[in-house]
Amino acid sequence: MTQQPIASPLAGSKPPSTWATGFIIFAAVMMMLSGAFQALAGLVALFENEFYVTTSDYVLQLDTTTWGWIHLLLGLLVVIASFAVLGGRIWGRVIGVTLAALSALANFAFIPYYPVWSLVVITLDVFVIWALTVHGRDNVR
């Protein structure tokens, strides 16, 4: 009696669907856009303090320079993570979902300073989270 070799779970499995691949590429491109938008908002806050209107009686009363650094660093991290997502790395998708959620929360807190911009970035972040999680097992490398 000869024993059959044990096949790995990914051996013989079907290739990733075109929908899954399309959603992952969509998420990576949206991460690049969202991160670039956020970094741009951070640069504006750093170089032009009077561009954003500060509001009184708001829970998070941070200086616009502080918001600038938060947005700049978070935006750059999202752009960097998008390259890992394009590379098909599972850890890139996990980091992408985490950073998109953090980005959405930061922009939610930033709504009183620049509402339209914040809502656009939150919308992009929601699309990124959806696209990274909708076909999770279909596109694993």
- Could you give a short account of the major beta sheet? none
| Tally of alpha and pi helices | 4
Helical content class: 55-70%
Low confidence ranges: none
- The coarse overall form would be elongated
In total, the number of strands is 0
Radius of gyration: 19 Å
Structural class: mainly alpha
Strand content: under 5%
Sequence of secondary-structure elements? HHHH
Mean pLDDT over all positions? 78
N- to C-terminal distance: 34 Å
What's the arrangement of secondary structure elements?
Blueprint: H1 18-47, H2 64-86, H3 90-109, H4 115-134
Helix pairs in contact: 1-2, 1-4, 2-3, 3-4
How would you describe this protein?
There is one protein chain. The chain is mainly alpha-helical and 141 residues long. The chain contains four helices and no strands. The chain has helices spanning 18-47, 64-86, 90-109, 115-134. The longest helix is centred in the N-terminal third of the chain and has 30 residues, at 18-47. The mean pLDDT is 78.
Features:
141 residues, elongated, 4 helices, mainly alpha
Short structural description:
The protein has 141 residues and is mainly α.
